[in-house]
Specification:
314 residues; alpha/beta; Helix Hairpins; five-stranded parallel β-sheet; MazG family protein; NTP_PyrPHydrolase_MazG; nucleoside triphosphate diphosphatase activity; Cobalt-precorrin-4 Transmethylase, domain 1; MazG-like_dom; single chain
């Protein structure tokens, strides 16, 4: 009586990157089986010089075949990328009914790394935009998606302020979808194509550049010092003509209260004090934004909270 080993490997990791125990089990096995020989893992095993056979059977028939093979030698089954739905239950029933069932082991040959599921999201987005995918997704452009990006960003803010963590997780996924969508659209541009890897590479370069206290010889040690360092580096990256423009880089579509907060923040870093002595409504509004900043709060968030309170009152 041999052993039956179900070798599980992450489809998000290069197929040949298996653990030492996995390769030992494959080399020692009397029989190595897989559903399809053209799946990545069977291909990697075959490339390594290990002979394998294919068995493309329904779960119950496959369970019987695996148990029969294991009656005479050690068998390794290479789990399919879809994890072979129904096989585990079928094997449990088959082995329970057997007089002398083989020993069954699940051997994990590779594990997902943090962020590995992002590869799934990229793949799904690619399928949706490719021929044979979703006609609506294929028809979208950067311009047509703009409103959805704004909506998802605002809905994410609402989820944060509600304190509902499950809702926040969902909304962050919707924002991520927009990033993947725009990157996939950009990849189809005939004149200037770029993709999600270019987006990620540019982000990584920016994070490394703006965190010299972590990745370089910077000496910032407090949150305030880190923020000041970030803003200095960011200012150096701007064209010279924009460095004294307090509105440079601030999108006009941003909430007026958030624009005011950012301008006041830039003035404070530059050592400039705004004139808030007037009695007109605009000056008084700006003074309220400044007062909120002095308390470490956001006038925009405070106003939203008050609007929700008033709307909920009876």
């Amino acid at each position: 009586m041999g052993d039956l080993t179900l070798l599980v490997a992450s489809p998000r990791v290069a197929a040949g990157l298996l653990s030492r125990d996995a390769w030992r089990a494959l080399e020692a096995a009397g029989t190595v089986l897989a559903r399809h020989g053209d799946d990545p893992l069977p291909q990697a095993v075959a490339t390594a010089g290990i002979a394998l056979e294919t068995l493309d059977l329904p779960p119950a028939a496959l369970a019987r075949a695996l148990a029969d093979r294991a009656a005479s030698c050690d068998v390794v089954w290479l789990t399919s990328p879809d994890a072979d739905p129904g096989l585990t239950d079928a094997l449990a029933g088959q082995l329970t009914a057997a007089d002398e069932p083989p020993t069954v082991e699940v051997l994990v040959g590779s594990w997902d790394q943090p962020g590995a599921r992002l590869l799934d999201a990229v793949t799904v987005m690619d399928v949706l935009r490719s021929p044979g995918g979703c006609p609506w997704d294929a028809d979208q452009t950067h311009d047509s998606l703009t409103k959805y990006l704004l909506e998802e960003a605002h809905e994410t803010v609402e989820a944060i302020e509600s304190g509902d963590r499950a809702h926040l997780r969902e909304e962050l996924g919707d924002v991520l979808l927009q990033v993947l969508f725009h990157a996939r659209i950009a990849a189809d541009d005939a004149d200037d194509p770029w993709d999600i890897d270019d987006v990620a590479a540019e982000l990584v370069a920016k994070l490394l550049r703006r965190h010299p206290h972590v990745f370089g010889d910077g000496d910032a040690t407090t949150p305030a010092e880190v923020e000041a360092s970030w803003e200095r580096i960011k200012a150096d990256e701007k064209p010279a003509r924009d460095r004294d423009d307090l509105l440079a880089g601030i999108p006009i579509s941003l909430s007026s209260l958030l624009i005011a907060d950012k301008v006041l923040s830039r003035m404070a870093r530059a050592g400039r004090v705004p004139d808030l002595t007037g009695d007109d409504l605009g000056t008084r509004l700006l003074a309220l934004v400044a007062a909120a900043r002095e308390r470490g709060e956001s006038a925009d968030a405070l106003l939203r909270a008050e609007v929700r309170r008033v709307a909920a009152s009876r």
